[in-house]
Design brief:
Blueprint lengths: L9 H28 L4 H9 L18 H14 L1 H11 L1 H9 L2 H12 L5 E4 L15 E5 L2 E12 L6 E7 L12 E6 L6 E6 L10 E12 L3 E2 L5 H37 L1 E2 L2 E2 L4 H29 L5 H26 L10 H9 L8 H14 L1
Parallel strand pairs: 1-4
Antiparallel strand pairs: 2-3, 3-7, 4-5, 5-8, 6-7, 9-10
Helix pairs in contact: 1-3, 3-4, 3-7, 4-7, 5-7, 7-8, 7-9, 7-10, 8-9, 9-10, 9-11
Length: 386
Amino acid sequence: MIDTLTPLTENQRAIQNMARDFARSELAPHAGRWDREERGDPAITARLGALGFLGMMLPESVGGLNLDTLSYLLALEEIAAADASTAVTMSVHNSLPTRMLLNFGSPAQQQAYLPRMATGELLGAFALSEPEAGSDASALRTQAVRDGDFWVLNGTKAWVTNGNCADVILAMARTDTADARRGSRGISAFIITPDLPGFRVGKKEQKMGLRASPTVQLAFDGMRVPADRLLGAEGLGFVYAMQSLEAGRLGIAAQAVGIARAAVEATIAYTRERQQFGKPLTAFQAVEFKLADMATRLHGARAMLHATAAAKDRGEPAGAHAAMCKLMASEAAMWITTQAIQLFGGYGYVTDYPVERLFRDAKITEIYEGTSEIQRIVIGRALASA
């Protein structure tokens, strides 16, 4: 079940095997406990960094591995199949904060943060959404006002993955004024660190899934940010974020594939062993058909993801296809984990088996990095303008 149909290079296969071994030995045995306790192991971030998983696509000049997109997604699927909470840490770090610094940061900013982010010494996070600005992210209200050599930020950020343990946070704030709003072109990006005066971690969310991954609010109360922490040009922060979402959506698609794969593998193993009416569940055609549909949706989502990664690595535009990947993989994961619960019966509804955790973890993949509805808007607009 775990093999891809995409031909892999020797290096890609080695990366996949390394990620699989790490996930099975150091994540899978603890994932259930981390979920119950709603906390992960901080040492895992250091292990991810030591193995190179936090700088996979960064150039060697800043300590990265300079790998292709497919290699990254192969590793991410393996991590997600063992523990989706660890996978989202890896995905967020590798996509928005590091990519935005690499693509839009000054040389000084890149050297200040990326080498240590590549090794896991510094963990990255991204803060765009707000309590009243979710899918309509450009409606954010956090305000930044220039004060000499500083920007003073006031506002609240919501649903920030790793916000209470991140060392480098790429945060969006308005730099236009109340009497001259410029919409999305009035939003700038800032490099935030927790040591800044006025930075405060707010409410930690109690979540249905990904319980071992902290999601918090961040409050900026007159937070003074040095002027050289402005990323790129003033007013282009939202543009930078949207351009970086392509990698984020592929990462969430890989996470969804990993969750779905774990559910399929667990269900196959269970239905082979579970006896009803004197024979294993796999002897019943109704069960075989359901397994066939689960495996087909899984392989379809993975095939689209890998094809899109290959196109991206060839330098081809992949924005709409990244949205398709995220849409298809997340909805497949939700459907597959639902079927897994059904085939496990009562055992699927209790915590003795992992499928109930996989079911809870799958749901968020339809929501963050753009809901399924937002993905359909992206895809539809691309089709209409083609």
